[in-house]
């Protein structure tokens, strides 16, 4: 109630200030922008793709809902799915790096770890023209000091859907919606039908609760 009272007062104030003719319209636009800024923001992220079937289905659902997400791609999975990668980019989603073979970087030498990341960066660049700055190390295992050699931003998560452990849509949805808070990064995968179904249900539920879905760069860099 206080929010709407404040907005109403602002509308009247802007109108009185002399927004002649289209003054109230401008005031409404400004009020709407302020209201939008008050929406709590969260990020949906998907690992292990691209997948020729499930990533496409997920993209369809996200497009219908006007939601942008972040996709951390495995380099070797890009081969044969180049059109999917281009679609991810064209529809406004953020593309990140998830190594070439989905390996634990801490168990590799520095040169091997760099190669895993750079090979995937090159694959992404070849298909999109983008030099991605974001990497999600598999298992959350970022090799110490590797970021001094490679200019990348490691991205972790706050809410783990554990979708790969159950492949049960209902359980995945319940796990995420009960834990999510403003500013959270949700970890999911786009290689299972159950994950796609759960992600879209989660999106519908959280949008009704007033959440705005953004890409991880919008959370981390703004």
From TrEMBL:
InterPro entries reported in the protein's UniProt record: Glyco_hydro/deAcase_b/a-brl, NODB_dom, Polysacc_deacetylase_ArnD
Domain NodB homology: 40-214
A Pfam family: Polysacc_deac_1
Record's keyword terms, sorted: Hydrolase, Metal-binding
Keyword Hydrolase: yes
Keyword Hydrolase annotated: yes
PROSITE patterns listed in its UniProt record: NODB (PS51677)
SUPFAM superfamilies found in the cross-reference section: Glycoside hydrolase/deacetylase
Descriptive protein name: Polysaccharide deacetylase family protein
């Amino acid at each position: 109630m206080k929010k709407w009272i404040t907005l109403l007062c602002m509308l009247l104030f802007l109108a009185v200030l002399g927004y002649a003719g289209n003054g109230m319209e401008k005031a409404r636009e400004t009020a709407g922008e302020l209201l939008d800024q008050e929406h709590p923001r969260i990020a949906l992220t998907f690992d292990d793709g691209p997948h020729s079937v499930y990533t496409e289905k997920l993209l369809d659902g996200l497009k219908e809902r006007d939601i942008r997400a972040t996709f951390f791609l495995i380099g070797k999975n890009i081969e044969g799915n180049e059109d999917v990668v281009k679609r991810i980019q064209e529809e406004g989603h953020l593309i990140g790096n998830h190594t070439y073979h989905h390996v634990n970087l801490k168990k590799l030498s520095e040169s091997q770890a760099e190669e895993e990341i750079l090979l995937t960066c090159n694959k992404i660049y070849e298909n999109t023209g983008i030099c991605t700055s974001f990497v999600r190390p598999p298992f959350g295992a970022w090799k110490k000091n590797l970021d001094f050699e490679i200019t990348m931003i490691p991205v972790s998560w706050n809410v783990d859907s554990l979708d790969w452990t159950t492949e049960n849509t209902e359980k995945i949805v319940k796990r995420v919606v009960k834990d999510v808070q403003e500013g959270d990064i949700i970890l999911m995968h786009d290689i299972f039908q159950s994950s796609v179904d759960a992600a879209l249900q989660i999106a519908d539920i959280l949008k009704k609760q007033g959440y705005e879905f953004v890409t991880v760069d919008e959370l981390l860099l703004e």
